[in-house]
Amino acid sequence: MKFSMKFLLFLISCTISSSLFAQSLGATENGDFLSGLGSFNETATSDKEPHIEVHSIPKVSNINQKQHNLLLTEDWSSGSFSTNNWTFEPSAGNWFIASSTVLGNPAPAAVFSWNPILTNYSYSMISPEIDVSEITGQIMFDFDYFYDEWTPTQTEFLKVYAQNADDWLLIDSFVNYGDVQWTTKSYNLDDFANSAAIRIKFEASGQNSNNIDRWIIDNIKIYESNPDLYPQIELSTYSILAMPMDWNDIRTEYFTIYNTGQADLIWESNIDYLKGDELSKFNFNTNLNSRNASDSKTVWLTLSPSSGSIASGASQIIAAVFNPGDALNEYWHQANILLSSNDPLNPVLTVSAEMYIGWTNLSEQPMEQIMIGPIPSNGSLHIKLIDDITAIQMLSLTGQQIFLTNVFGMPHVKMDLNDYKSGTYVLKFIHKSGDIALRKIVLF
After folding, report:
1. Lower CB count within 10 Å: N or C terminus of the chain?
2. What is the pTM assigned to this prediction?
């Protein structure tokens, strides 16, 4: 972990939602926390982050999938910068390809790390030269990026450039001020339409790399775009959550599929239920229920509609129905909604679906006001509480207590979780009224 110089890389994705659980602390709150919560009563630890098998997705039939002209695509799956001839200036420095199965969108990804600590630094990752001499349409440039905050000094940067002839032109710049979850950036490079070739550069620079945890880059695409040729899928959210109060409480959550392209979008869905042995692996017996967690008959989520066609510029609201009556006698469930379509840029998108059974939110103040960061964590976890939280309990994903500690009267706490194994856990915040709130954390 960071201060012990262990650098095991993280991140859940999977696509597990961070919209509710992975809320980072504000810039003015970092470092103002009380530490020393006393000894924890450890009863169990988790193994390393498990592999999650993604089931195959049915192909969408009878679809005209006329491809755009893809000039460069990089998802780092080769595990090597040299495969697609990436170079560095003056050297790779702290750039590397993470091998962790939980880092990337999905893993692996290119990472610029804080370690080893650099001062007054600038290290660039540069693409190969891309021939655009015969391009007649728009030149588009997309990539996904993620930023994991440490200290919001606003002195560290990730800058993105494109080369026109001999000149590097700044396209965008990002500064170390607050965590950024996975975000897709897209740019029109029409200024380079008359060039014979272009290159892209990602420059990590700043005063002291110890002010960041990491910048992460994934899914780089450079392509010739003719929007008249294909549809484009966009989603209103990439995660949905339901918290039924009991086993008979059916909940419906909604998300929207948009077609922002210029052709009909044809899509269909497949729900991949994550089984108990995929959610977590423990040193103790995880079969705490009356039925086996891998029961193939377990169906607790349905979509309406589950497939369809969306005209250009139109949208479709999807109802996701959570039915605990069809679920196992566990309190936490997760599935991936896999949406396949004829969008050549995004043939498959994933929406993470989670269901908690038998839990309530805090009534006096909204759950969103409890803030935790960073998530994923390397072991040092900062928590901003709301009034009248009496205790924090850490649980395994099957609900077994890891520890319980008293925090009554503490507005902020800092937890040192370096001694716990990498994996996913749940923090349970107990209010004096008896209400509780849940947050998921990931240790790497």
Report:
1. N
2. 0.43
R_g of the chain, CA atoms, integer Å: 23
Among 44-58, 148-162, 198-212, 233-247, whose mean pLDDT is lowest?
44-58
Q: What is the dihedral of CA 295, 301, 307, 308, to 10 degrees?
A: 170
Q: How far is CA 78 from CA 74, 271, 317, in A?
A: 9, 28, 37
Tokens 């945890």 belong to residue: 213
For residues 42 and 139, give the distance between their C-alpha atoms in angstroms, rounded to a whole number.
Answer: 55
Residue with the larger pLDDT of the pair 397 and 304: 304
Query: Which residue shows structure tokens 């469930």?
Result: 333
Distance of alpha carbon 355 from alpha carbon 240, whole angstroms? 9
Q: Is 55 exposed, middle or buried (0-12, 13-18, 19+ CB in 10 A)?
A: exposed
Alpha-carbon distance of 373 to 100, in angstroms, equals: 20
Q: Set out the domains of the chain in order of their start, with CATH numbers.
A: 69-225 (2.60.120.200), 233-356 (2.60.40.10)
Helix (H, G, I), strand (E, B) or coil at 61: coil
**Are 432 and 390 spatial neighbours (Cβ–Cβ below 8 Å)?**
yes
> Facing residues of 441 across strands?
425
Sign of the dihedral defined by the CA atoms of residues 148, 150, 153, 158, in that order: negative
Longest dimension (CA), the chain: 68
Provide the β-strand partners of residue 351: 337
Look at residue 279 and give its three-state secondary structure: helix
Q: What is the mean pLDDT of residues 352-380?
A: 69
Name the amino acid, one letter, at 154: Q
* Phi, psi angle pair for 120, to nearest 5°: 45, 60
Tokens matching residue 63: 């679809």
pLDDT at 432: 79
Q: Which of 172, 254, 278 is nearest to 217 (CA)?
A: 172
Q: How far is CA 216 from the centre of its chain?
A: 11
| Planar angle of CA 18, 24, 26, nearest 5 degrees | 150
Cα-based angle 102, 31, 7 (whole degrees, multiple of 5): 30
How are beta strands 197-198 and 130-131 bridged, if at all? Answer: antiparallel
Distance from CA of residue 193 to its chain's centroid? 34
**Distances 342 to 54, 233, 257 between C-alpha atoms, Å:** 20, 9, 13
Chain centre to alpha carbon of residue 347:
19
Task: Please write the tens of the pLDDT for every residue from 204-239.
Answer: 999 999 999 999 999 999 988 765 678 889 988 887
311: helix, coil or strand? coil
